[in-house]
Amino acid sequence: MQVDDLMSAPVYSVSPEDTVGHVKNVMLKHKIGRVVVAYEGTLIGVIAKYDLAKMLVSSEAGWRRRHQDRTLAKTVMSENLVITSPSASIAEAAREMIANGIGCLPVVKDGELLGIFTETDLTAHFAGTSSKVQVKTIMADAFLTCHRHHSINHVLRDMETNHIFRTIVQEGNGVPVGIITHTNLTFAQEPLVDSKDIVMVRKADRAGVLRNRYVRRVLQVAEDIMSEPLITIRSDSKAVDAARAMVKNRIDAMPVVRGESLVGVISKTDIVGKMAE
Length: 277
Known about the structure:
Blueprint: H1 3-6, E1 13-14, H2 20-30, E2 34-39, E3 42-48, H3 49-54, H4 62-65, H5 73-76, H6 90-100, E4 104-109, E5 112-118, H7 119-127, H8 135-138, E6 144-147, H9 152-162, E7 166-170, E8 176-181, H10 182-187, E9 196-199, E10 215-218, H11 222-225, E11 233-234, H12 239-249, E12 253-258, E13 261-267, H13 268-275
Helix pairs in contact: 6-13, 7-12, 7-13
């Protein structure tokens, strides 16, 4: 099977001088996760949700200051383009994505942009196969967690430090209740209020004496933007079932559980990695 059998077309484009706010509106309107950036008909870059989420990490107060209507597309786009041919095999395209750490490939023939080939296209194709591969054989067993009352800046710093743009949101007792991905970060609204009151859990003082609960005033927190209810999958399930759930629910990753324990995360990238073999 070739790239042009699965690629998405038409390709939605923006100008390098368009604002990030406009880019987000294009993504939301067309329900897409990536747009190309073109100047005078020439492809010069690609913007993915990942790029928009990363710009929030630029400074401690970036979540509040970097307003989307003051940031231009050219400042957040990826310029090192990796393209593919419509006649390339889907396995070749998958290997290009994994080798370059990217989630999409513009499809070009004779200098003309024909479409875009993404992780979602590959995941949707994989979901229709009869693969017997189990989730536990391709999932990532390293994952991030945060408390539902951790600040957005805390979540962003943790993701950037670990180079993982998804985190599982937990209650104080460790029970997972939601997930935050670059999709949540990209399309979350900026806080409408200056701060909010959060009642923090009890903490043990010296000699095991419990301190009283206390109230902390914070800006927007993890529970404000997380996706819930949490959709999970068992580690012994088939990977095609995970792919089908991701496509059906329009999500990029799912926590993996064994019994009641959280043991990993499976993402579209993991599916692409399997198809690249």
